[in-house]
Amino acid sequence: MSNKFIGIGASAGYAIGKVFRLEDPDLTVEKQNISDVDDEIKLFNQSLEQSKKELEIIKEKTKDQLGDEHAEIFSAHILVLSDPELVDTIRKKVSDEKINVAYALKEVSDQFVIMFESMENEYMKERAADIRDVSKRVLSHILGKPIVSIAEINEEVIIIAEDLTPSDTAQLDKKFVQGFVTDIGGRTSHSAIMSRSMEIPAVVGTKKITDHAKNGEIIVVDGNDGTVILNPTEEELTEYKQKQNQFNEQKKEWAKLVNDKTKTNDGIQVELAANIGTPNDLDGVKNNGAEAIGLYRTEFLYMGRDELPTEEEQFEAYKKVVEEMEGKPVVIRTLDIGGDKELPYLDLPKEMNPFLGFRAIRLCLEKDDMFRTQLRALLRASAYGNLKIMFPMIATLEEFREAKKFLEEERQSLLNSGVEVRNDIEIGIMVEIPSTAVMAGQFAKEVDFFSIGTNDLIQYTMAADRMNERVSYLYQPYNPAILNLVKMVIDASHKEGKWTGMCGEMAGDTVAIPLLLGLGLDEFSMSATSILPARSQIASIKKGDAEKLVTKALQLNTSDEVKELVEEQFL
Question: Which of 126, 428, 430, 567 could pair with 571 in a Cys bridge, judged by C-beta atoms 3.0 to 4.6 Å apart?
Fold first, then answer.
């Protein structure tokens, strides 16, 4: 008899195959008294170096397969292994207490993990996962018990694990790993994001799959709706093989749209753009037929290094992207650091609520030397293509005016030096703070465009940390409150003859797309792999029908009611 589990569909597609349980070796350690501290420290140092070498190899492999943005995860892991707060504390514990290093490592790393996990924000939770991942690697070397390498899998399987670490996911070989299922995790975890980039079907957060799945058993993974079936019946196997074939045929149909314009069924054109983190993401942008880049996250230029990037380094990166897009729009967001992303070399104070703290434009306006360097690089790159500049986390008109003043000063300085700068650069803002959406009418008189960052706008509007599982039910993109804020922003921009885009997860959401069309969104920016399915969906919708849908949706009371309405009429 089959056994069904429900989790979170993290990466679309269907997989049918044999279970491969990814289980850690027994890394249990007991406290032991030692007589030779030097030998124990030497063992620790050797294990650290061995782990760093492995992580460098994984980082390079990830860079080749998935690009710089995903590779930076392992730069962070390597930094953890060099963090004196962690490694010196372990050495001191061995020396002071005359105990075995394996026990000292386990005790110290567990303390760090508990401390970071208790802080309940995205950056700290990711930091806890990083420490858990790298300390496990070092401990396995100390104990001489190697961790099973996913890279060595040489037959078609579906991986079952409590969780997949970033280093696990980076070693997945699509030729053999057909899909994966985990007990824990969410759509925004590293492993989920990487699985979408690699187009490997995945379901996370099943809570108990590892309690039931045994090596060699047949399993079905439905990454579209989050269903997992262990030991499926013949009827279920037939059903999912058919779904798998239909999905593969659908992908072939989507591929035919790669060079098409994005138009509704009644001929209204909108723009489908891609979100990128580094110039290495451009292949995916082109292969999926993006008409623009709606969000270039520049912070990845700043991460995984010991000092700020130079003006020249930034200029070359921005220039490469605008040149390769051959005149298509490229919206580049200025540095959005803080909250869930931290730069150790800036030595910023720890904050109780980093998502609501000293981050993004707030940080840039205070550290204006750093900001001006980036602005100069952007202005210089503007001469090579259709570059647009976007300021993140704008809460007040004063912030926008000050940021624009810095930009104008740097523009004039470059022109005075004889440097070519495009004279028609559009300057916009991300709308991710509710006050900005409410004040959109005033902002629209001064900005050239809006881009709605729904990931933050939703969590700020609903006062719910989207990474906190206990309040995840409040992450409601279809809530009428959110739809009304989006409407305010779009209407305000159109009244002033400006345009509005969206670069949050919501832009590529199949339920949200008919609503956003009805609201009049001009540009939808999403992960590159979502573009062709979105183009196909938009081509099936009449703009007039979407407008009628929105009129009804805005009169409803709950997110579930809105979702049901969309599904009845469009899905």
Answer: 567
